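Why run this: before we spend reagent on co-expression, it is cheaper to look at a predicted model of the complex and decide which construct boundaries make sense. The entries below are exactly what would go into the expression plan.
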Amino acid sequence: EDKVVQSPLSLVVHEGDTVTLNCSYEVTNFRSLLWYKQEKKAPTFLFMLTSSGIEKKSGRLSSILDKKELFSILNITATQTGDSAIYLCAVFYNNDMRFGAGTRLTVKP
Amino acid sequence: DGGITQSPKYLFRKEGQNVTLSCEQNLNHDAMYWYRQDPGQGLRLIYYSQIVNDFQKGDIAEGYSVSREKKESFPLTVTSAQKNPTAFYLCASSIRVDSPLHFGNGTRLTVT
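The model came back. Tokens follow.
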């Protein structure tokens, strides 16, 4: 069965810490992996990854994909309270997209 | 500003009643989607539409129905056949099926 697994499910850190969120997948005909941030309501798009080993970066956030080991990581450096959110990973394969359960990140002052 | 508008934000219904959730987009996107979000389960696909007058079932379509009569609109009806309808419903659109999704702000449905 096709699946997308995120870990950890929840994480509590303090401001300034660096966090690494994981997304592993088992799907047929992988096409891309996407990361979204959901603060309260609408998830917002962060990154789309299609090639292994090429880091995508936006400010303090970065992400990389390993298509051999079938996972991606999302790194957030120097975390701020505004980074508190649910981070969703989604994998596009064939003509389907499957979301992981999400990682709830809480950043304490 | 372009975007996706879902209404209402909150909806309360009695068991046995059908209810329709609205989703409108002015992004000129061809593809539209409905997801359901429950705590600890991520987003699960209910229905999607790649083009006007065509739509496909997602993983959890039972008890739901949709229509796509216009490119801009993709309403979702939660019928009385849906066993556990209380949830947060998100509508999304994308330029193409394999493009990043743009989400609306969601509708929280409570059925008692």
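The mean pLDDT of chain B is 94. Chain B touches chain A through 18 residues (CB under 8 Å). Bring this page to Monday's planning discussion.
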